[in-house]
Amino acid sequence: MSDEQQKQTETPEQVQPEQILEPAADDVEIQGDEAVDAETLKQQLAQAEAEIADLQKQLAELQPRAQAEIQNMRRRAEQDVEKARKFALEKFAGELLPVMDSLERAIEACQAEDEATKSLKEGVEMTHKLFLDGMGKFNVETVDPTGEAFNPEHHQAMSLVDAPDAEPNTVVAVMQKGYLLNGRLIRPAMVMVAKG
């Protein structure tokens, strides 16, 4: 065998117990500090876990409220859109009401027995009917409360009159019809009311 092979086959020197080094004093203190630090870290970890649990509890309480608030906002937005759609024609319908009033006055002014105005009256009546039908397609309703009880939400009292044959607080005459758009008042009916 060569010298190199002999060196490789030799066993390493045995380590004698005297040769084991004792730990340095600094190492012992570090281990002691680590023990103290571990205790502090355990306390901090416990505090952090308690805080996390508290925050999770608060989040669990707030989450249903936030979802309810989002649903309420969505519902309100849908209602606003629906109202805007339903009442978009309010101003337009309000501008057409004087035209309706003029047609009604023209019908009242024409005398049925007068041959000269008979065909005129028929034409105005047909125009009035077409106009009413067209308004009805867009949910514009006429308020004609003759003989009904006075309703301050839909009627505007112009005067109180003595009417012995009528119940007190009933509408005796309608001076101008009122109109509703999808149940909302566009214009109140101007009425004369029987005295109580």
TrEMBL record:
Keyword Coiled coil on entry: yes
InterPro entries in the cross-refs: GrpE, GrpE_CC, GrpE_head
Subcellular location(s) of the protein: Cytoplasm
Domain of life of the source: Bacteria
Gene name per UniProt: grpE
Keyword terms of this UniProt record: Chaperone, Coiled coil, Cytoplasm, Stress response
GO cellular component, one term: cytosol
Residue ranges of the region described as Disordered: 1-23
Lineage: Bacteria, Pseudomonadati, Pseudomonadota, Gammaproteobacteria, Oceanospirillales
Self-association and partners: Homodimer.
Biological process per Gene Ontology, one example term: protein folding
Protein role: Participates actively in the response to hyperosmotic and heat shock by preventing the aggregation of stress-denatured proteins, in association with DnaK and GrpE. It is the nucleotide exchange factor for DnaK and may function as a thermosensor. Unfolded proteins bind initially to DnaJ; upon interaction with the DnaJ-bound protein, DnaK hydrolyzes its bound ATP, resulting in the formation of a stable complex. GrpE releases ADP from DnaK; ATP binding to DnaK triggers the release of the substrate protein, thus completing the reaction cycle.
Transmembrane segments: none
Similarity section: Belongs to the GrpE family.
Name recorded for this polypeptide: Protein GrpE
Gene3D superfamilies: 3.90.20.20, Head domain of nucleotide exchange factor GrpE
Positions in coiled-coil regions: 38-65
HAMAP family, A to Z: GrpE (MF_01151)
Pfam families tied to this protein: GrpE
Residue stretches of biased makeup (Low complexity): 8-19
Keyword Lipid metabolism: no
GO molecular function: adenyl-nucleotide exchange factor activity; protein homodimerization activity; protein-folding chaperone binding; unfolded protein binding
